[in-house]
Recover the amino acids of this structure.
């Protein structure tokens, strides 16, 4: 999908790998200046080589203070993609406090924090904006050994709606994209759970094992762009039909 983001500045979290990395590349190709936020510096170094002009920012978004320091003076941002997440698998009866806290801090709390920083900037500049939260079908259906991950994404559904409600008057739209399995590093690790692999095979009427990264990126770009100007508080399923039954 070729959209024009000339003159706009975007911030993408979890930019080092997978969906975030391809989103950064697509935004750069479409003319946006991009701030790429991720945890592993080597990923940002290699991404910068592919995308000249990129503004890399290395921070652990699970650390509130470090995030505040890194992003506090990020400057004007028009488009935000909250993509960073971890999918830590544990059977329900074995879930630890560490996994719970880490998952909620990275997957949900950082979305709140980064969105606050960016939205405050948009409001003070008096410019419109678009925020896309990367959720999952795991926010809508249960998946074995992913109780905490599913809970973070379920909570993200409501966070997206309330952000849309409160930021709407400031001309800031907030939506989510909810993919099914995508065979990135995260997707591969989830797919190693045979129960989940079986579900994907049974529940995708398209008879595809997984959605393509590019299909997810296309939906992100659509929601960031003015092509979706009347859409907020909503979500796009990129689910190969998982939710039809
Ligand atoms: P990957 O694991 O492939 O990439 C995630 C990226 O986020 C990595 O660059 C990772 O950096 C970064 N990241 C993770 N934690 C942090 C952190 N604390 N601070 C900064 N950066 C961090 O994941 P995907 O591309 O597959 O997933 C992207 C999004 O899509 C996530 O929100 C995920 O929940 C969602 N999704 C993915 C699906 C899938 O099957 N893959 C399905 C449905 C939704 P590092 O490697 O250095 O930690």
């Amino acid at each position: 999908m070729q959209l024009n983001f000339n003159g706009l500045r975007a911030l993408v979290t979890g930019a080092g790998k997978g969906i975030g990395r391809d989103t950064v590349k697509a935004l750069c190709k479409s003319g946006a200046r991009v701030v790429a936020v991720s945890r592993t510096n080597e990923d940002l170094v290699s991404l910068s080589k592919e995308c000249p002009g990129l503004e890399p920012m290395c921070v652990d978004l699970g650390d509130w203070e470090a995030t505040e320091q890194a992003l506090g003076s990020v400057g004007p941002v028009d488009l935000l993609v909250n993509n960073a997440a971890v999918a830590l698998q544990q059977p329900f009866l074995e879930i630890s406090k560490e996994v719970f806290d880490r998952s909620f801090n990275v997957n949900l709390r950082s979305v709140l924090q980064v969105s606050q920083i960016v939205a405050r900037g948009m409001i003070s500049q008096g410019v419109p904006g678009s925020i896309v939260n990367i959720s999952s079908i795991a926010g809508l259906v249960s998946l074995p050994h992913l109780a905490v991950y599913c809970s973070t994404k379920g909570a993200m559904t409501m966070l997206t709606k309330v952000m849309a409600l409160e930021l709407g008057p400031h001309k800031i739209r907030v939506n989510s994209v909810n993919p099914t399995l995508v065979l990135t590093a995260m997707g591969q690790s989830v797919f190693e759970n045979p129960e989940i692999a079986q579900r994907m095979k049974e529940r995708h009427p398209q008879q595809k094992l997984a959605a393509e990264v590019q299909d997810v990126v296309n939906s992100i770009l659509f929601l960031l762009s003015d092509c979706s100007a009347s859409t907020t508080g909503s979500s796009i399923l990129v689910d190969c039909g998982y939710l039809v039954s």
Observations:
- Residues 97-125 form the longest helix (29 residues).
